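REQUEST FORM: STRUCTURE PREDICTION
Request ID: SP-0412
Submitted by: Lab K.M.
Chain count: 1
Length (residues): 188
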Amino acid sequence: MKIAERIVILTLVVGIFGGGIGFIFYVKNLISEEHQQKVADVALGKYQMPIAAEETEIDIDAWRIIYPATVTILIGGTAVEASVADSLLERISGLSGTPFLPDNVVKLFVFGVLGPQSIWMKDMNYPIDILWLDETGVIVHIEKNISPDTYPTSFSSPVPAWYVVEANAGFVDSQGITIGEIVTMPTL
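STATUS: Completed
RESULT:
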């Protein structure tokens, strides 16, 4: 290769490399200018947070919108509708975020294994009574009137449980529910 060819190739390589670096700085400068302009616009109040749509009130008589699939169970001698949480995601969510729990509805957690079965009040809007049951449906532990303010504290049974039932606060007292009573439910 002659010296002239080498000079031309070297000039092309330097030109391409230099042009690429120049292009990168040009784009970086454009992005920086756009960012600075948006920061200035925010400071001037040109952007506003979107206002969330107001939540629709659900009539307590239309509770099936929140608890669409239920089964009838007997707690002691009281028949109630149970919204069943038998998957991990359903058990984690539980009653979190629900606006209310009708007096005739409970949340039934099916763990499928004996253990302390901890329950917490994350994102709860109302107090509840909690009942822990063994694998045969016998109530082995009760906690009453647990407030949403107790979060992040969790509540567990000192006796291993297979199921947990959450009901409105006051349910246990109003129905005279005690440890040792049986909860009768369909095969789940």
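NOTES: Confidence is low (pLDDT under 50) at residues 49-54.
Reviewed by: T.R.
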